[in-house]
């Protein structure tokens, strides 16, 4: 999941440098959503391991 976030951020940066603002905005939006989904899943994973008795 984090890999795709980085891919879309790089795509947004390249598109922005080349002047494709619509594509850059869309790629940045997708990267932002994927990043927050990744963070939520990370927090859920930490709490799940903590409740299971395993150290994170």
Present the secondary structure layout.
Layout: H1 2-18, H2 21-51
Structure description:
There is one protein chain. With 56 residues, the protein is mainly α. The protein has one domain. Helix content is 86%, strand content 0%. The chain is built from two helices and no strands. The protein has helices spanning 2-18, 21-51. The longest helix is centred in the middle third of the chain and has 31 residues, at 21-51. The radius of gyration is 16 Å and the shape is rod-shaped. The mean pLDDT is 84. Keywords: Cell membrane, Membrane, Transmembrane, Transmembrane helix. The chain crosses the membrane at residues 6-26, 33-52. This is DUF1328 domain-containing protein. InterPro entries: DUF1328.
Provide keyphrases for this structure.
56 residues, mainly alpha, 0% strand, rod-shaped
Structure in a nutshell:
The protein has 56 residues and is an all-alpha fold.
Quick check: average pLDDT?
Answer: 84
Proportion of residues in helical segments? over 70%
How many individual domains? 1
Low-pLDDT runs: none
């Amino acid at each position: 999941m984090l890999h795709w976030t980085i891919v879309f951020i790089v795509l947004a940066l390249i598109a922005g440098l080349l002047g494709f603002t619509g594509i850059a905005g869309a790629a940045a939006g997708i990267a932002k959503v994927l990043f927050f989904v990744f963070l939520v899943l990370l927090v859920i994973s930490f709490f799940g391991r903590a409740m299971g008795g395993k150290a994170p």
